[in-house]
User: What shape does this take?
Amino acid sequence: MTTKVTKRYLLNQSALYHCTSKRKLARVLQIDLKRLVGIVGDIPNQYSTITRPKKDSGERIVHNAHFELKRVQRRLFTLLRRVKRPNWLISGEIGKSITDNVRPHLGGTQLLKIDISGFFDNCSRESVYQFFHVQMAQPSDVAKICTDLCTLENAVVQGASTSMLIAFYANQSMLQELHELAEDNSLIFTVYVDDIAFSSSHSFQASDILDQATRIVSAYGFRVKNKKVRAYNDSRPKLLTGVIITTTSKMAVPNCKRRKILDDMTQYRRSTNPAERRSMRSKILGQISAAQQIEPDFFTGVKNQLKYEMRMDED
Assistant: This one.
């Protein structure tokens, strides 16, 4: 099977670059101009709100765009995803996943990871506007519309298809400085949303890199989440974006995810409600498929058994 490769362009070759009028922007976004103006003029009412739990307690508010705005955001994302970006950016890139964020670090004996606190909440509307107005060379009225499509309440929208790439472009200068810090110290560097990772097969002073990275992040109005800073050496497993790097430089599923699947399987076996069993079976199959991106042979027997039971239910 041949995998289709999307051709990548320089930023100044994008259809969004130097888009000189609102009418031209509407054509590029494949929407009637009056509808586009109507949408951006009523942005607060173009979303419904979903609350999701955070892994480390607390809640995250996700804004779900209504159909028409979502379609325009998707078009904007399609145009942006065709632009060339640094290889060290993993999040928001088509065809890349958490395993692509881990793979470059597999050969490292040391790993330092930091988390930027409130990355989306503090990714300001002004920084997004500056991306469209300055880097994309759009006049102010066009840049304002593009900014309105990607932001809400003066920050990047969480949950929109555009969010990860827009967050990158709005903070590209900061991330580029962090990359230069890595290069200056011969370190491997990756970015996955707000997770920044430095690693090397040679010894380095993690505390010095952390201090310098913290100063860079602070200079841009962000802060490093101290409780999530982790420095690993080669004597113990490392956890990066939900993937374990073993002491033999292999990727492994974290034990907590294994336990969760086993607990769900126990609940599934105990259930006598057909509808509940179908729902739980689909959930567990999804969990196993996600885990198999990390470990291809993970729980293969369980997966096959669940698929067999699914076929029996359908007959």
